[in-house]
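W.,

You were right to be curious about this one. When I first looked at the sequence I had no strong expectations either way, so I just let the prediction run and decided to look at it fresh. Below is the sequence, 127 residues in total, followed by the output.
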Amino acid sequence: MCLVARHFEERGLPTLILGSALDILTAGKPPRAKFVNYPLGFESGRFRDGQNQFDVVAGALKGFDEMTSPGIEPLPFEWQRGWDMVRKREKGKLDHRSPRTTRPQYQTEEDRLMAERTIGDGIVPSG
């Protein structure tokens, strides 16, 4: 999303990203973003909590008026009931995903090589 946002911003269309993965937002360097400290998948508010969803989205949209320079600003919301309640169960076991990292990960070696050669719309000379 950050790459798409930068593309639109370069063409004069303002963008704002609402995200809950600060490490991913930081690595993506969006032109304008609001960070909410909620579990992944709950960026726009708590499940079945319409007031919280409205408050989160309204707070994020204020970024269009309030943010005068590129960056990531936190929203004043915290997940109160603990993160364990959102873990998925697969075959009777909790979903223990590997920790996130800013190091790119690829499905195949060919994907890695292609990504390292390509930047934006241009090709980086291999060497």
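Here's what jumped out at me. Residues 50-61 form the longest helix (12 residues). And, maybe more interesting for your project: The longest strand covers residues 71-78.

Coffee later to discuss?

I.
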